[in-house]
Amino acid sequence: MAATSRVDSQGKAPSSAPMPRILSGIQPSGQLHLGNWAGAVRQWVELQETQESFIFVASYHALTTVKKPEELRHAVRQIAVDLVALGIDPARTCLYAQQDVPEVTELAWLLSCVCPMSLADKGVSFKDKTAKGFEANLGLYTYPILQAADILGPDSDIVPVGKDQIQHIEIARDLAGKFNALYGEVFKLPAWRLHPESDVLPGIDGQKMSKSYGNTIDPFQDEKPLRKRIMSIVSDSTPVDQPKDPDSDATFRIFRAVAGKADPRTIELERKYREPPAGGFGYGHAKQALFEMLLERFAAARTRRAQLMADPAEIDRILAQGAQRARVLVRATVDRARRACGLA
Ligand code: ADP
Ligand code: TRP
Fold this sequence. Notes:
This protein is mainly α. The protein has 15 helices and 5 strands. The strands form 2 sheets. The protein has a 3-stranded parallel β-sheet with strand order 1-2-3. A two-stranded parallel sheet has the order 4-5. Helix 3 (69-85) packs across helix 14 (299-309), helix 4 packs across helix 8 and helix 11 (250-259) packs antiparallel against helix 12 (264-274). Residues 1-14 have low confidence and may be disordered.
């Protein structure tokens, strides 16, 4: 399926169609990082301008791997604060914590009863997580079924995510299709969506940036440690006066993903990689440019985050309001599904 099969490249529906509903989530399993922002969060911020939006903190999902209650409690609130700081506007987006919409777990059960073992077996996240040393619990194994419930519960049309989540959206479509085939048209089939400039963002070691690899860059980190972190990004040993390949360099790829391909600063940086100016251009210069660009790009978000952190009641109020709205929608879907399958 094409990333934009039901929407154009800006995520807008054809004018004759009703306004699509977008839904996505992020796990509170660690500090939000630039990869999350580039692959997922920035699309959510852009799309909320024109779409009806639902974004949630996937706390039941995080419970599959996070076993410290205080850590989980803190992370749910912290991710919500970070999302608002990065531009998720509670006046436009229904922002909630998954645990405040417990109806999704009921829906997950109904869906699990039409999920063949062979489909659950295909889930790459279970294999990935257990390979990384996480306990092989049943929640981790059935994770994609809960994710399908998250998606189908609010009748979402589009699920904007990073590339690694495509399989989960496909599983949600499969489960919706199976349930509909058995019981009639209960669920809408959602489409996934990638950011038009989507790339898997590398971390400081050049691998995919991920919380579980310890290679992330935190856009909210204090300036000094942030600069140190950026200076530690891997690079090869090409001398300053020699041309360098920007596409294989993590510093450049991060710069391009954040500033944008068409940004004059990206174009200028690319030129310096390919044709170093007199006096040379080394990776240290590129890293300094990345550091400065990040500070500028996230200046407003950093200020907003500090304000939100000074007033914890505000984020609790936002999450409570969001959950109230989401629950009504999910309850209606669960009731429809119950009636269809004979549980009325
Ligand atoms: P992590 O791998 O750090 O645990 P998550 O699984 O919580 O990240 O991902 C949350 C969202 O961010 C998903 O939509 C995912 O596709 C996106 N994402 C995560 N890492 C990256 C990356 N390195 N590049 C692009 N998108 C990413
Ligand atoms: N599995 C997603 C991740 O790790 C988080 C998630 C849970 C999600 N439920 C979702 C994403 C529903 C989109 C839609 O990133």
